[in-house]
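Appendix B, record 7
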Amino acid sequence: MISKEKIYDRLMGCLYRQAFGDTLGLGAEEQYADRMARMYPNKLQRYDSW
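Structure tokens (predicted):
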């Protein structure tokens, strides 16, 4: 039997990973591969403020 604490920890881990993944993927969301290659020729390495 898994404890409530362990379930809570796993749930929070999933939520944090989802949030971080969404944040990191935001710069490439809904972009075509050729446009991404022009915008980020050395791959996406950092985020700048708008």
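Remarks on this record: The first helix runs from residue 4 to 25. The mean pLDDT is 84.
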